[in-house]
Write a structure and sequence with these properties.
flat; mainly alpha; 8 helices
Length: about 325
Amino acid sequence: MRRLALASVVANSAIVVTGGAVRLTASGLGCPTWPRCTTTTYTPTAEYAVHGVIEFGNRLLTFVLTAVVAACLVAVWRQRPVRPGMRRLATLVFLGIPAQALLGGVTVLTGLNPWTVMAHFLLSMVLIALAVVLHARAGEGDLPPRLLVPPPLQRLGYGLLALVAATLVAGTVVTGSGPHSGDPAAGRTGLDPATVSQVHADLVFLLIGLTVAFLVALRATGAPPAALRSMGVLLGVELAQGLLGLVQYFTDLPVILVGLHLAGACAVLVAAVQAVLALRDRGPLAAAPPPAAPADRELSPAAGTGRPRHSAPPIRAR
């Protein structure tokens, strides 16, 4: 179950990166309509050349993602003992796939409107966060959450997640205001790229500062090693992502670095959710139900008789 849940996290993150590759190669309208690729075919034509192949390939990857998430959903529903919380999480992740496909269709039909592109990305972030929670829940029990840190630190953890979300939203606004629109004809938000980039950078600095303070507070309160380790991983990912963002900004946004920055955004979200989940414990996994006990008596080899094997034969009339 945990392996399938991890595959769901990886697949949902991978589709974000491949979608970014579509945008960064200006292939966003390589298939100019939806659900078909062109007005007459479901597959790309020579008219759209490589751009059509790239966009169509990203659409095909949606089926791979659907297969992974569906397998995870089936495994959760077959799991014994029944775990309602995990069923809800797996169902939400699964329902997010068709919702994401529809929003992707709207994005294409609106000519890559920057606001729909932003919504398309942010919905993927929500699905990744849900998949991370599902993966964590697959390895723990169903007892009520028991805090491993003082309550104020748990509330600070929720604030940390909110700040991560705000940073991601600001990053999408930067993307919608600058180059790499996905197609030369696609519109932009009209906001000043330098201004929104500064806002995004300020949020990143605030996020890193809050994470450092959180790590110090965890050490001071004697938090368990798992919580310290998770928060340390989050800080490392944030620092790497922040450095990458600065380099790409001062090198005029090269495509390779922008793609890595997009992958880094997924990594920051995954690490942040894991760090907050490490602040509580829900006990060990419940044991699987024992196998059914054998019948008290063994049935006769004769099918359908239901007689005990050693019962006396019936008396026949002469």
